[in-house]
Task: structure prediction
Amino acid sequence: MQNSVTQLFNIKYPIIQGGMIWASGWRLASAVSNAGGLGIIGAGSMYPEVLREHIQKCKKATKNPFGVNIPMLYPDLDKLMDIIVEENVGIVFTSAGNPKTWTAFLKGKGITVVHVVSSVKFALKAQDAGVDAIVAEGFEAGGHNGRDETTTMVLIPAVKEIIKIPLIAAGGIASGKSMLAAMVLGADGVQIGSRFVASLEASSHLNFKEKVVAAKEGDTQLTLKELAPVRLLKNKFYQDIQEAYSHCASPEELKSLLGRARAKKGMFEGDMVEGELEIGQVSALIHEIKSAKEIIEEIMTEFESTVKDMNSFLI
Result:
């Protein structure tokens, strides 16, 4: 399957694995790349030298392209960028910040740059900054999210109307049917996060993976908009946030409740009570922990069979 996204990254399938914190280490990234997608190392939860280690191990585990996702709110951003250049990483996904800050630097080093956005306004800014492609992420997605709460079904055609570079859809995509739907709406490829959290190779804790598999419709909620909107699985920590809201907590009080390392405690260390559990709405459709290879094969098989079904329906 060849299109602008597969050609841009030199991959077999237009499937990009999301760079989720505490889940997207070298094992998952290399497994996705070996299966024909684009694996992404999530640098958001890594110290600089930890990122270097993951890049080096990923190189040994796959001969195929892979990338690194960097949230631009990271305090040691310059150190991460230096490591990316030193380790000859060819693809970087940036998020949570102004794409103009680092795009020219990265492209000057011959690196392909993709920026993640949640609105038409920011898609235009990213294109103007010179990125090679855009990920448009609807608010169904897990983790940190857009404030406008625009759904993927609305966001993708809206962004497609105004950009001229490849468009990758994210948010609520975990199957071949949803991948096809996104591409019908105008996407050239898809970025999938939550489905890969529940994979054998994800570095997230088994407790978290099992919690994702057990999730039902309505078990996630977008919250903490005063700080940075984030979609969470409902647990005691989530209920503590709601209790704080009921008492009109200030942003400072919410920040104190969140504390430090709350996401690590939940997603990486496996505390399903007090931990922050970031996952998308599509968790309600994930019923089994599988290998990354099995996930990609399942998605592509369903995608191709659905295309055939639609062709027969239209005749």
Notes: The first strand starts at residue 15 and ends at 17. DSSP finds 14 helices and eleven strands in the chain.
